[in-house]
Amino acid sequence: MSTMPDGKPRSAGLDDGLTPDPALPAPSVDEAVREAEERKWTPAKIALWVAISLLGAVAWFMVAIVRGETVNAIWFVFAAVCTYLIGYRFYSKFIERHLLRPNDRRATPAEYKADGKDYVRTDRNVLFGHHFAAIAGAGPLVGPIIAAQMGYLPGTIWIIIGVVLAGAVQDYLVMFFSMRRGGRSLGQMAREELGVIGGTAALVATLLIMVIIVAILALVVVNALAESPWGVFSVGMTIPIALFMGVYLRHLRPGKILEVSLIGFVLLLAAIIGGGAVAGTEWGAALFTLDKVTLAWALIVYGFIAAILPVWLLLAPRDYLSTFMKIGVIAMLALAVIVVRPEITVPAFSEFASRDNGPVFPGALFPFLFVTIACGALSGFHALISSGTTPKLIEKERQSRYIGYGGMLMESFVAIMALVAAISIDRGLYFAMNAPAALTGGTVETAAAWVNSLGLSGVNLSPGLLSETAANVGEESIISRTGGAPTLAVGLAHIMEQFIGGTAMMAFWYHFAIMFEALFILTAVDAGTRVARFMLQDSIGNLVPKFKEHSWRPGAWLCTAVMVGAWGAVLLMGVTDPLGGINTLFPLFGIANQLLAAIALAVCLAIVAKRGSFRYLWIAALPLAFAAVVTITASYQKIFSATPAVGYFANNAAFSKAMAEGKTSFGTAKTVAAMEAVVRNTMIQGWLSVIFVVLSIIVIVTALAATVTSFRNAAKGIPNTDHEDPARASRVFAPAGLIPTAAERELTAQWDKLPAEQRFETARHH
Description:
globular; 1% strand; 2 strands
């Protein structure tokens, strides 16, 4: 038998001490057969990968090296897709083979903890949809658009290369390690692996950061749906559609994934098309036009209900349903880019790439580009989902590569398409939309004059273009529509109207994109709330063990109420903020999110070391080192910078001084109430930044200490403590990836011969 570099048997599943049920077919493909399939390279297969590599190389050459006046947008699509394919096929397989070594003979928590509520075996494609929908929130849509201020190349490199080496690696490792530990949360894993000090710091940090993240996601949804009856109706209809799909798949037609997918897709299209019709009626406009406060309370109630219902009833099918729209729209946009082939006039590095006073966001390219673009390249929020709902639903261990690594690659593609949409519009228009009203003046004349005063190469913005664009998308004004979402909608409408419908369709595509973004982000709110409940239960469980039983309803209800109350309070503060809320919370969101990624990677580093995989420690250490340097540097600058536009406390001091001098307006604040809000908010942001970075440093230091201890123990022959759940023999089978291999299809056929009741219920352990 062949061996691994660390001396462990290659076919570990054959010597794992697990005894499969002799009355059932095999729970996994034979390792020798799997190895033979993976190592078989036919001439056609070789030619395919050579072609992918060459196309990717040409695309990167055109994007990164060639310096003409324009670059065609198709090269961004080809560079991204080819890099993702190579990263998934080779790098993620390398991690699977040499570091994680999944064993499909071993039962997952969804099998041995099955309770019909939180632990439920879920078809891999449905789960991919749930996971992708849960992780793909505001970040991949907003971050790349804001970062386009620096030019197209820095963001492109970070999104594509960063996801292959950092973001997808984090998601994959966290998901696998959580799955091996019964689906435990990131904070609880840190508590077990890093000890009392590091674990407590991680628990507090993850809970606090989670509250901020979910509140921000909910705030973006509120801003997108406020006063939009079309969006409210269509997004709201996804809830009863998902409930129907959950009941259909669970009780009416178990296992009929394709069937329920087609039904759900048709119903979703009907909800989208019907939303426009309903919004056009007098009664529909009256019923579904909601203000921000009403929407905020509706989201709070929805978040509580979604977090306590069985996961199969609402969360999984709703996220799977929304994935149809998410992936469908992004694929449609990519196809439109290939057909329309828009020319990008934005420079690779803009005038603001070497400065720290950009009008869209302040701060230097390093480190602030890498925290502005979080989701899509590396996101700590993903670690919470990967250690929250998803590991409790996975059927087989090998599926974690497809769902964890593959799901993150799909989100990265969303980020690239958002970037392409942002840089495809007129460059002057981009700055007029994304700069605050204090700079643009709020009118087409003042906005055009301000943009032209920036001295940007090739930019000569006219008031007529601003008015014409607003009229084409059906808006009164597009000036200072900050936050990224409106820019993405204009960019998508600009590309799609050249593909389908012409200028007359721009208003449709614009409002379609706004609704698409709201649906995109809402799915992260419900999953995030459920994960927050798991995190709090695990934390309290260290003192009251009963809370660790996720199926214990009193504990689930209490912890859900506490977490919803926490992020709901922050949401209401943001909704009623005189500066719009998003200005208060979003700057903190990026850094907090990346600090959380550093915490997650630090925990993974400690676990890899305890597993004795020192030869491959660099897989986790490389992204951890980069994330730690970026986030600690960014935190230091936000806390200690003397520049008011960058530093929280410097900004606080500037506004406090202005108020003490009796001024009634200052900077972006046009009223005394707004000035008071800036003083209050910057103080909150500053101290939260201090708390977050201190806790993160504690976690990283204790993780490094645990890694050194594991290395010394291994040198002395002392075994390290293993916190994995005891291995149990699996009694189910499912393919590992999107497309089953020949061996998997053959084994699936054997399982399909079993009676339906036995096939779907055999895994329940009581």
